[in-house]
């Protein structure tokens, strides 16, 4: 069986966020559930975007939607693990904002998961038409600075 591979990029804008795994995050197999990992990634992504001066619910006046998502699991995560979630965002090429996450166990730096997703900005008043990313966000990512 072919597995997807998510390569965490080097030399691009990065942010780090620490989160703990809660007891309610465990699934029936007694490890972190997929749905909860996606929620943890969203929280880390939201924190990263805020440092860039944007909120994913309103980037340049438009909400961001996840258009694609790929997750590669490397090791199990359980309560009460502390996780470090690194977010990397390359300078966009086109209308999509590609976001990468690397999740590691803080205790031993063991890799738990890597993920890649693409955010698109949409205009709900025009039937969800995809709109360009704001230049201020692209400029911040290109300069490697936060807001």
From TrEMBL:
PANTHER family in alphabetical order: 4-HYDROXYBENZOYL-COA THIOESTERASE FAMILY MEMBER, NOVEL THIOESTERASE SUPERFAMILY DOMAIN AND SAPOSIN A-TYPE DOMAIN CONTAINING PROTEIN (0610012H03RIK)
Keyword Mitochondrion appears in the UniProt entry: no
Keywords (A to Z) from UniProt: Hydrolase
Organism: Billgrantia endophytica
Family, similarity comment: Belongs to the 4-hydroxybenzoyl-CoA thioesterase family.
Matches recorded under Pfam families: 4HBT_2
GO MF entries: fatty acyl-CoA hydrolase activity
UniProt-recorded name of the protein: Thioesterase
